[in-house]
Amino acid sequence: MTQNKSVLDWIENMKALVTPDNVVWITGEEAQLEELRKEACSTGEMIKLNEEKLPGCYLHRTAVNDVARVEDRTFICSKKEEDAGPTNHWMDPEKAYKMLYDIAKGSYKGRTMYVIPYSMGPVGSHFAKVGVELTDSIYVVLNMAIMTRVGNKVWDVLGDSNDWVRGLHCKCQIDAEKRYICHFPEDNTIISVNSGYGGNVLLGKKCFALRIASFQGKNEGWMAEHMLILGVQNPKGEIKYVTAAFPSACGKTNLAMLIPPEGYRAKGYKVWTVGDDIAWMRIGPDGRLWAINPENGFFGVAPGTNEKSNPNALHTTRQGTIFTNVAHNLDDNTVWWEGLDKNPPENAVDWKGNPWNGKTSTEKGAHPNSRFTAPAKNCPCISPEFENGAGVPISAIVFGGRRAQTTPLVYQSRDWNNGVFVGSIMASETTAAATGAVGVVRRDPMAMLPFCGYHMGDYFKHWIEMGEKLGDKAPKIFNVNWFRLDDEGNFIWPGFGDNLRVLEWIIDRCEGKVDAEETAIGYVPHAEDINLEGLKDFSIDTLKGILKVDNGQWAKEAEGIEEFYKKFGDRLPAELRAELDGLKERLAK
Ligand code: GTP
Ligand code: SPV
Ligand code: MN
Question: What contacts 208, CB < 8 A, 6 or more positions away?
Answer without folding.
Answer: 120, 129, 131, 165, 167, 190
